TrEMBL record:
Record's keyword annotation contains Metal-binding: yes
Sequence ranges assigned to domain Cytochrome c in this UniProt record: 33-114
Biological source species: Pedobacter steynii
Keyword Transcription regulation carried by entry: no
InterPro entries on file: 6-blade_b-propeller_TolB-like, Cyt_c-like_dom, Cyt_c-like_dom_sf, Glc/Sorbosone_DH, Quinoprot_gluc/sorb_DH_b-prop
Name of protein: Glucose/arabinose dehydrogenase, beta-propeller fold
Length: 481
């Protein structure tokens, strides 16, 4: 009987699958204090959900409710579905399993999760470039437009801005906001989630002029197009790339066109950290360190060679560039301004997007442990935490589709100092996380519905820049007062 209630709580059986969290905070419905009369009711409903529904739909109700509801999602709709079922759709009635009171309590509990999802997506597009936030009033000044999907940004000496477009074009943004094309960028497979992605300058760019580009490298074998994540190193002379050389090419190659990862960050150790997604094959790639670069964070020298203290250098058969494994699709990476630690964010499935602090040799769990469920509503793993697995510092339910990541430094943004900013692709906003002892203690939704927010960077001039998609625009955040 228990296994069927999970089917009952589909509330109408057939749900609309979500294609990808990219194509779409932890913010959970608050538990009431024990002194509150509603505490025991919510506690009981949560326990009933976990015991009767979690086996089919995952332990986190917030992930389960992140769906389209075929038969409605009002309290009356939920009550009817749980009590009477939809026999023709394989969902039995449970009027003999729960009392009406218990069904109402369970419906109320589910409604809390639905409201939590709705708070991200509701609302209209902004009509002004002035936004009042909890701490500041911010004006969004346009820095560049005419782009499609600006994936990565990098600042050069003299406040010059480089921008990649996922369609394969590479630009230098001029002071008059015009886009100056840069020739010599690699040929990319601009399909699915692939294309020209991140860009970072060499720490010694002022003297050596080197930059690094991540992209979807491709080839054809036996009439099939295969692609992978690659890193190109090149020298930037004026508006031309020269001396191009791939210094990292992930293997194995794949026919899929998603989950490339592709964020890069130079650490204080002078080494280049690279994220590579698991390319949609979670059963084989992220947990395999031998002959497999996918679903990992890698650490290499600027010429592509391997640091001698990488964690798997002495592991027979392992890929020596691997720094961490068990990662799903990391699309944000930055360095903590005080500690020098590398932080990253990565897409979960339906629920369970993560923020992690990268530590050498650690397993970040995908798909053994996850707070999310599959896009079709099925369980990926009934384990969210496990010994030997590094738990995320923070996770989002529902999935916000995180991309881009930066710590707020300097003194321009009063009240935001030390906060962590993350772009949301799915809900089209900038997420502000307030941190205390490496824990997210508060979050704020900024610039709601501004557009799929792909990248966020702190510039050398102390301003924050964000890049949004379709139409592709780069904005500078200017405090008004």
């Amino acid at each position: 009987m228990i296994k069927y209630l999970g089917g009952a709580l589909v509330i109408g059986g057939v749900l609309t699958s979500i294609l990808s969290s990219e194509d779409k905070a932890t913010v959970h419905p608050p538990m009431l204090p024990a002194s509150n009369p509603g505490y025991r009711l919510q506690e009981k409903a949560e326990l009933n959900y976990r015991n009767y529904c979690g086996g089919c739909h995952g332990e986190k109700m917030d992930a389960f409710v992140d769906r389209q509801w075929k038969h409605g999602n009002t309290k009356e709709d939920l009550f009817k579905a749980i009590k009477n079922g939809y026999a023709n759709e394989g969902m039995p009635a449970f009027d003999s399993t729960f009392t009406d009171k218990e069904i109402r309590e369970l419906s109320d509990y589910i409604l809390k999760g639905i409201k939590n999802v709705d708070r991200y997506g509701a609302g209209k597009k902004p009509v002004s470039n002035i936004f009042k936030t909890e701490e500041l009033t911010i004006r969004l000044d346009t820095v560049a437009k005419g782009l499609d999907i600006p994936w990565g940004m990098a600042f050069l000496p003299g406040d010059e801005l480089l921008v990649t477009d996922r369609n394969g074009k590479f630009y230098k943004v001029k002071k008059d906001q015009s886009l100056q094309p840069i020739s010599g960028a690699p040929e990319v497979l601009a399909k699915g989630q692939g294309g020209l992605m991140d860009v970072v300058p060499d720490p010694a760019f002022a003297s050596n002029k080197f930059i690094y580009l991540s992209y979807s490298k491709f080839k054809t074998e036996e009439g099939k197009v295969l692609a992978t994540t690659a890193i190109l190193k090149a020298r930037l002379e004026g508006n031309e790339l020269k001396d191009q050389q791939d210094i990292f090419v992930a293997k194995p190659w794949s026919r899929t066109q998603l989950h490339y990862g592709s964020r890069m960050q130079f650490g204080k150790d002078g080494y280049l950290y690279i994220s590579v997604g698991e390319r949609g094959n979670e059963k084989q790639n992220p947990q395999e360190i031998k002959g497999n670069d996918l679903g990992k964070i890698h650490r290499i020298k600027s010429d592509g060679s391997i640091p001698s203290d990488n964690p798997f250098v002495k592991t027979e058969g392992a890929e020596a560039s691997i720094f961490t494994y068990g990662n799903r699709n990391p699309q944000g990476m930055t360095i903590h301004p005080q500690t020098g630690a590398i932080w990253e964010n990565e897409h979960g499935p339906r629920g369970g997007d993560e923020i992690n602090i990268i530590q050498p040799g650690k397993n970040y769990g995908w798909p053994i442990a996850t707070y999310g469920i599959n896009y079709n509503g099925k369980i990926i793993s009934n384990i969210s935490e496990k010994e030997g697995i590094t738990a995320p510092l923070h996770y989002w339910i529902p999935s916000i589709g995180p991309s881009g990541m930066a710590f707020v430094t300097g003194s321009r943004y009063k009240g935001w100092e030390g906060n962590l900013l993350t772009g949301s692709l799915r809900f089209e906003y900038l997420n502000r996380s307030v941190l205390k002892n490496n824990k997210v203690v508060k979050e704020e939704i900024l610039f709601k519905n501004i557009g799929r927010l792909r990248d966020v960077r702190m510039a050398p001039d102390g301003f924050i820049y964000i890049a949004v998609e379709s139409p592709g625009i780069v904005y500078k955040l200017v405090p008004v007062n």
